[in-house]
Design goal:
The structure holds two protein chains of two kinds.
Chain A lengths: L4 H64 L5 H16 L4 E7 L2 E8 L3 H4 L1 E3 L5 H8 L3 E2 L16 E7 L2 E8 L11 H28 L1
Antiparallel strand pairs in A: 1-2, 1-6, 2-3, 4-5, 5-6
Chain B lengths: L2 E6 L3 H11 L4 E6 L2 H11 L3 E5 L7 H10 L8 E5 L4 H9 L4 E4 L4 H16 L1
Classes of the chains: A alpha+beta, B alpha/beta.
Amino acid sequence: MSENTRPFIQKIVNDAREYVQSLLDENKRLHDLLAGMQEENRRASARYVEVEQQNTNLANLYVASYQLHGTLHRERVLNAIKEIIINLIGSEELGVWEVNDGYLTLIDSFGLDDNEWAAIPAGAPSMIARVAASGETFVASNTMIALEGREKNLTAYVPLKLDDDVIAVIGIFTLLQQKEGLEPVDHELFDLLATHGATALHCTKLAAGAAQ
Amino acid sequence: MKKKVLLVDDSNTVLLMEKMILAKGPYDIVTARDGAEGIAKAKSEKPDVILLDVMMPNLDGLSACAALRADPDTAHIPIVMVTTRGEQANIETAFRNGANDYVTKPINGLELLTKLEYILGESAA
């Protein structure tokens, strides 16, 4: 190689290096852009799932409220309570006890032994009596209290309250096999049953009284 | 183009819930209250897909599913069983009777919409 051609060759090599470096830079820029878009896509997908879950939860609450207040017939209100627990919360073991004359009297059930649960003295040493007295929802998984006997499989007791008076208690026992545990919307459904279930049941009494 | 979905369930609560979930999709909804009415509606309405409850009066969902599959007029319609009991044996029975898929209660809206989109996309292909 002559002395005259060396600078020329060197320039070509340098230009080629610069060109390769610019390609590498562009490649990195596109790679970063793609990673950003993938991250954005992941965020959008997660948000979509979250919004759809919120939609389902709102639908649950709307359906429950609609069903409870869609009738003035006692049997239909009780049936609505059962359907809400079976289909929206997910349990096929439930009971509804009315509070009167010092007793909790079973007025509707599904999957329970009615004879075993028919009438419970309000002062009995059981959780259902404590819930009827306190007016506080009891969720078994939120406590360390070990329930025994017929309450062993309890998931929750929900007191139905008119103002501060407990007029009935809903008991929800074993959850469906595919249901791994209570979800936030289930607690919202408990709250809805506690207030709207009570007013719906009370309205059936008023309607029956008015009809007579 | 809207797809027609036949909802078969004896529970008002479930029917209303399913309607609300499907309301934001491109679906026309038809309902039936038991297996026998479901078969009749499947023949008269010719839906694109059927959501079929398992436990129902008159004719349960599994028997209705088998009857729909045995009838040339309805044999091609995709069926999604809606079941309270998620045990493996129940699901296997549903598939043996001709179900294409299943969802368990309480119904998850996203799961149901995703399965319907998949089934309807597949049946349109």
